[in-house]
Amino acid sequence: MSVRVRGIYATALTELLIDAGVEVVQASGPIEDRFDAEFGAERAAATVATTDDRQGVGVSGDSESVERVVDRLRGLGRDALAWSAETPDGAVVTGAVTETLGSGAVVDCGVGEAFLPYSNADDRIETGDRVRGQVVDATAPWTDGRAVLDTAVAVRGDLLTLERGASNTTSAGGPAMLDVISAAPRDGWGVSWGRASDEASFDALADALDAANERAAALDEALAAADPVDDADRGRVDDPDGDAAVATTWVWFGRESRFGLDERRRAVTATMPGHHRVKAGSEAASAAVDYVEALCPDPEADGEQDFPFGVTAAQFGPREGDTLTLGHGKPDGRLLTLGRADVESVAADGTVTVTREMAGGGEYDGLGVPKEAGDVAETTLKEGRWWYPTVYRDGDGTSKGTYVNVCTPVEVFPDTARYVDLHVDVVRHADGTVERVDDDELDAAVERGDVPEALADRARSVAAALVSALS
């Protein structure tokens, strides 16, 4: 198995995968400089790339390879959580156009919504049309985005792309590659060569073309057996037997996992305390980390315990007077935004207090008291803590009760606080009664496979300690 790795976690994940006996290929220049190892230029069976929001990675490629890589990534920490995409990169789907927008159409694929840019379609698209397309950009479940489609069907890779119905091309500045390698594209498909092909051997290119031809044959077979687009059901076309050849799995790194990545990276090169924790916050923060590590080649510190939250917050935020959203992740991969709150205070130990003014209507979960206009919710977040309390008060400042969320360790970024809710929670009513709630939801999440047992055990232990402390 061979894997291509890119993004802010590349050094740590390269070290992790090499240690696990996985071959890393097409390494970037900085990775080649840091490792005393040979990196081939052959085809990657899977690609690991940082998500746009820097919270984790997407792993795409051959299904078996993706599964093996994800198994290793989940071992980084109890809060490394993974979700498989129902519309992975490379999947071919049939769907119905439900809405047309300025730049493209929204498509209901039966297994989720996708977006088809007009530039990726040959024909005019109208609401109600049936379309068939291939996923060229899957999206992480916590982003609320839509997978992007292209009506061109292809086998896409870094060395080459094999496109159905296209013509062959030459490599950039080189000879007709097919004249010098012992392989040819499948009939009805045209090959174009990627930039990475310039570094690959002829044998590696031939092997990559053979693998692409095999995938192309499977797509031809699936498309030949599929109903005409106008009569087809919504859903996957390339996976008629439910045993897909391609997969995309999203791995979200929680705070523990990020510090686990620091340890992996520190084994290779100078790594400041909280390297990945800071880099996950923003591009500016990422650049600052690179600057610090260039100045301090060997900082000796416990990454998690010595994480410089106060300095990081002072430089990048949040600061008193800012606003902060609560990124309430769910164990099934969804992300709920609990609204924007005003930052009241920020302490060097990682404690951030925020307040929100509540609208009226309904009741507060777990407390069973009415939610009234003018109520104020005061939430105390602390970096690295497995729980956070929210105290609800009426307009006169009288407490209506406290709700304590149990979650993966809180991370307070400049614009948002992030964690994954672990279902079980503790409430303290206005009369002082303490109650533990939603254990059944945690049990169900474990049974579904959304929450690993070790993480669930930690959540139950935290909840028990909170009940004892609040009683």
> Considering DSSP H and I runs of 4 or more, what fraction of the residues is helical?
10-25%
**Proportion of strand residues:** 25-35%
CATH architecture heading of the largest domain:
Beta Barrel
CA gyration radius, whole angstroms: 25 Å
Supply the CATH superfamily name of the largest domain: FomD-like
Structure notes:
It is a single chain. The chain has 471 residues and is α+β, with helices and mostly antiparallel strands. It has 3 domains: 1-88 and 245-307, no CATH class; 92-244, Nucleic acid-binding proteins (OB fold (Dihydrolipoamide Acetyltransferase, E2P), Beta Barrel), CATH 2.40.50; 314-470, FomD barrel-like fold, CATH 2.40.380. 25% of the residues lie in helices and 31% in strands. It contains 10 helices and 24 strands. The strands form 4 sheets. A 7-stranded mixed beta barrel has the order 16-17-18-19-20-21-23. The longest helix has 24 residues, at 202-225. The radius of gyration is 25 Å and the shape is globular.
What layout of secondary structure does this protein have?
Layout: E1 2-6, H1 10-19, E2 23-24, H2 29-34, E3 46-50, E4 56-62, H3 63-73, E5 80-84, E6 92-100, E7 104-108, E8 113-117, E9 130-137, E10 147-150, E11 154-156, E12 160-164, E13 189-193, H4 202-225, E14 235-236, E15 246-253, H5 255-266, H6 275-279, H7 283-295, H8 309-316, E16 323-329, E17 335-346, E18 351-357, E19 376-382, E20 387-393, E21 399-407, E22 411-412, E23 416-429, E24 434-437, H9 439-448, H10 453-470
Parallel strand pairs: 1-2, 1-3, 8-10, 16-23
Antiparallel strand pairs: 3-4, 4-15, 5-15, 6-7, 6-9, 6-14, 7-8, 9-10, 11-12, 12-13, 16-17, 17-18, 18-19, 19-20, 20-21, 21-23, 22-23, 23-24
